TrEMBL record:
One of its GO terms (molecular function) is DNA binding. Residues 136-288 form the Integrase catalytic domain. GO terms for biological process: DNA integration; DNA transposition. PROSITE patterns: INTEGRASE. This is Integrase catalytic domain-containing protein. It comes from the Bacteria.
Amino acid sequence: MTTMPSPLKYEREQRFKWYLQVLKYKRPVKETCQIFGISRKTYYKWYARDYGKGSRNHIALKNQPNLKLTHEIRKFIEEQKFKTNYGPLKMKLLVKKKLGIDISTTIIYRYYRRKKLIRRPQRKLPWYEPMKQALIIAKPGEGVQMDIKYVYEDGIRKFQFSVFDPFTEKYHFTILATKESRNAIAAFLNAEKYFGFKILSIQSDNGGEFRGDFHNWLTKQNIPHFFIPKKSPYWNAQVERVHKTIDDEYYQNPMRVWNTPYEWLEFYNFERIHLTLNGSTPQEKLLQ
């Protein structure tokens, strides 16, 4: 029986010319392979044979601590991901800036995926048909306006979910760490409990925080959800106006007398005079 000729072999001296270019002269493997007319698969196959474990030429790779996620780095990434929702590139820059460690975006992304830290954006959700004309408000709970604004607590950006009843002008908000759609449900329930009456319908913009889980939940509760036209915040003028009010009277007021925004909220609903209510407070309007 005749044996088939063995595949093309490369002499040891020739192979080590390849390695010399990569290991000593720092030439990329791709470029080295082009120079010598070989494939990268061939290069790595012979490199594994010549330098693999068990070979007398084996060179142990140096430990690369910067490529490994230690407990401290993992804890830092998880805290910052929850706070900022940074993608792998921004997180890489943040880790480099704060910890002085350079980690690849691939490692960060794989860690995100393994720990289920990826919060998918909701901009791919369906865009609901906007309302064509303003609602006629006849009683408490109708056309309750919802919106969101950024606030800072101890230097950390958070999200204030605002709920405003246009009939009584009662106002409530819930400050949360993220603006995910399910948080709008929590804000709705907190406001309804605070108001003391049922919310009969909701009016909001088409932001992701008011679509998805929140809109589906409203549908299951048989609560109508009206979307204002795109780029038309004046449709939600009352809740937009109360955002300016809380900025003027609390957040941006160096002379404020309230220790927390929730103390101001009590003042707004139970003590503050409202000219649009003919000098009454929202609570007095509710009781009329």
